[in-house]
Amino acid sequence: MNESKPAGQFFDAAIGLLRQVRDEEGEHIAAAGTLIADTVAAGGRLFAFGAGHSSLPAQDVVYRAGGLALMNLLAVPGVVGVDVIPATLGSALERVDELATTVLDCSPLRSGDLLIVISLSGRNALPVEMAMSARERGVRVIGVTSVGYATGTTSRNSSGGFLKDHCDLVIDNKIAIGDAELTMDGVGAPFAPASTVVTSAIMQSMVAAGVSELAERGIEPPMLRSGNVDGGHEWNRKVMTEYGDRIFYRR
């Protein structure tokens, strides 16, 4: 691939961000792995939440071949990706005050669980209040966000805070404000967002760290296998039966 062309430039930008996250956020990712392992070892449940495109990295670690079976998606109807019409409804719901509290009231989260909240900007009401309300309930919260937004934008939450201000642990995905890596004459706006690539890698690295730490403690982590390999369905059925009280995506 020609590195001087936009496609090659995007790969270079994404690889650069991944390296930056690995080098600068490695300790935080390891700490996230410890929180995951601690929660699993104590019998707690794992949840991931994101609104809009930030839901994609959350979905990427749920019911996934090679993934931890105990990771559940905390889904809010209308804000999971762009699955509603008009798609702008999801953006509007993300700015509604008190929605997060209602969602948690109806969710299975309880004290001792772990919630990963993903929000690129970390400024909207839903992810900020999700973190705040979860912690009030005794749930530990990991935030995955771009810390730079807190200095370059204003909060849309009534508290005046950002997601990074209401978490037990924060991982910075290093994405620049606007989430677009390329510019070009004749193109009126920056383009080629990298947040999904980088944040999905962060999520998988966190889970990998947690799985590794569980194994090091002598606890076999409940993993899922691909349903497209021989014996995969049988393996997964056994895992889901054994850990059914902590798996909510089958209910």
From TrEMBL:
Q: Which GO terms describe its biological process?
A: carbohydrate derivative metabolic process
Identify the InterPro entries for this entry: RpiR-like_SIS (IPR035472), SIS_dom (IPR001347), SIS_dom_sf (IPR046348), SIS_GmhA/DiaA_subfam (IPR050099)
Recorded hits in Pfam families, A to Z, give: SIS_2
Q: Where is the signal peptide?
A: none
**Domain SIS, residue spans:** 36-221
PANTHER family documented for this protein:
PHOSPHOHEPTOSE ISOMERASE, SEDOHEPTULOSE 7-PHOSPHATE ISOMERASE / DNAA INITIATOR-ASSOCIATING FACTOR FOR REPLICATION INITIATION
**What is the name of this protein?**
SIS domain-containing protein
